[in-house]
Amino acid sequence: MQKVLERSFLSSQALESSTATLKFASTPHDSLDVIPSTSRQLIATLKKTDWFDRIFIISGLVFFGLAVLFILKQHIIDRGFHIASFWTS
Question: How many whole angstroms separate alpha carbon 78 and alpha carbon 51?
């Protein structure tokens, strides 16, 4: 009877020890399970931001090009009309 009780006690201790080990190992595993979903969300946000950045860059280049064309128009075409109207009047 004493031996059965000791075996039961040792089994109980072994079970508690293995339970503690499993709980200790499952905590980091659970936290690692969150990483892929967070990474997917981050990648989706970066892709969306990438498109906004491209739109802003293209808009800036178009605005710059229009400003350059306006300045060239002012200096070349309008000045040419001014000189032509000076000689014809």
Answer: 39
